Amino acid sequence: MELIGTRHLPVVDGERWVGMLSIRDLLRVEIGEQGDELKLLHEYIQH
Q1: Radius of gyration of the chain from its Cα atoms, rounded to whole angstroms
Q2: Per residue of the chain (47 residues), what is the pLDDT tens digit?
Q3: 11 — phi, psi (to 5°)?
Q4: Residue 47: HSE in the Cβ half-sphere, 13 Å Cα cutoff
Q5: Of 9, 16, 18, 43, which is most buried, counting CB atoms within 10 Å of its CB?
Q6: 19 backbone dihedrals φ, ψ, rounded to 5°
Q7: φ and ψ at 6, to 5 degrees?
Q8: Hey, how many other C-beta atoms are within 10 angstroms of the C-beta on 9?
Q9: Which sequence spans correspond to the domains of the chain?
Q10: What is the DSSP code string of 5-35?
């Protein structure tokens, strides 16, 4: 997305349009995964 200079991409299933994906959606997932990893590391360190 960054390479082509857009913040939104269409999501298609074959020829059918099913939605839009934004860079914000991707960042939200990434941040959530990082938060989960931090929790696990924190628990590991405490034990």
Answers
A1: 16
A2: 888 999 999 999 999 999 999 999 998 888 888 988 888 899 899 98
A3: -110, 125
A4: 6
A5: 9
A6: 165, -170
A7: -130, 155
A8: 15
A9: 8-46
A10: T-SEEEEEETTEEEEEEEHHHHHHHHHHHHH
Amino acid letter for position 35: G
How far is 6 from 26, CA to CA, in rounded Å? 13
CA separation for the pair 18, 10 (Å, rounded) = 8
Q: Side chain identity at 45, as an amino acid letter?
A: I
What burial letters (b/e) apply to 20-47, b meaning 16+ CB within 10 Å? eeeeeeeeeeeeeeeeeeeeeeeeeeee
The answer to whether the predicted template modeling score (pTM) of the entire model surpasses 0.90 is no
